[in-house]
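Narrative summary of target 7.
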Amino acid sequence: MKPRYIMAALLLMTLGACSHQKFIPGTRIPDESRNREIIKIIERYRHAVITKDISSLEAMAHPDYYEHAGTPTAKDDYGYKGLVQVLRARLPEIKRIRFEIQYRKINWISKKHVEVEVYIDASFQINVKGEQRWSRFADYNKIVLRKYKDRWLIVSGM
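Modeled conformation, tokenized:
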């Protein structure tokens, strides 16, 4: 057999082996039960944001929750108590919410620690000094979850 035919056959066998990988619909994330479980949790989070369910959002946050707000200074960073304050202050001011999440990648750090890379596309109508204004947010984000008492809770990224 000529070398180029051997290379073509090897390439076809490799492509054939890769094509059996199944992905969660709408993603490039392997369709595994543990990945589906994590996406289901984040979808509950997304739904709680849309419905402005503050108590559910508070219950989804890990006691060690920490948000660094993506800035170089620590002035706007906050933990669980700060998250609760933010949720209670800001969510009631929002009138309408559109909140979409595209799942990019799930990184399993350990059996009890996972990082989910997402793209968030959201818009909302908010009351600012008695005036209704629309605002839009679209950016890549990382939602970090950790097991706590047999439940997955969000450690950062809300």
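The two ends are 58 Å apart (CA to CA).
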